[in-house]
Amino acid sequence: MIKSVFASVIICNGLLLLAGCGSGVDRPSTVQVEGTVTFDNQPLEGASISFIPQDGRPASGFTDAGGHFVLKTFEPGDGAIPGEHTVIVTKVAADSKSGDDIYAKQKSVIPEKYGDLKNSGLTATVKTDGENKFSFELKK
User: Fold this and answer.
1) What is the tally of helices (H) and strands (E) in the chain?
2) The domain 34-138: what is its CATH number?
3) Is the four-CA dihedral 25, 27, 28, 31 of positive or negative sign?
4) Are 52 and 73 in contact (CB under 8 A)?
5) Residues 46 and 63 sit within 8 Å (Cβ to Cβ)
6) Any signal peptide, and if so, which residues (predicted)?
7) Residues 78, 51: contact at Cβ < 8 Å?
8) What is the pLDDT of residue 106?
9) What is the pLDDT of residues 12-64, one digit of tens each?
10) Of 83, 96, 78, which Cα lies nearest the Cα of 33?
């Protein structure tokens, strides 16, 4: 009896695993999204940016030396799901007192409100047609 229950659990888990390994046919459509992030009128390098829709999977990316980002939802460069998004931006660095300690406490380089989903004040409307280029100018 225990062996048959165990076998059933293994088979069910295997089927669930296989069901999740599709080619992405059931994925919602995405559109390319890119843009720039500045902080006090300077490009913000090494920041994480996320577009979070009302429903569905968020898209994210990182800024380069010029503050430029390209979003990813499922695959690199595929963009974001069309619609209204709340945008959050974060950038942290090790506390300067920590020296070479890799486990040092991280602190935000920009105001923490930009990383707060409810208080970032940043939004974007991703359209199905046309360009989706956004510019976010963060202030102290």
Assistant:
1) 1, 10
2) 2.60.40
3) negative
4) no
5) yes
6) 1-19
7) no
8) 83
9) 444 444 444 545 568 899 999 999 999 999 999 999 999 999 889 999 999 99
10) 78
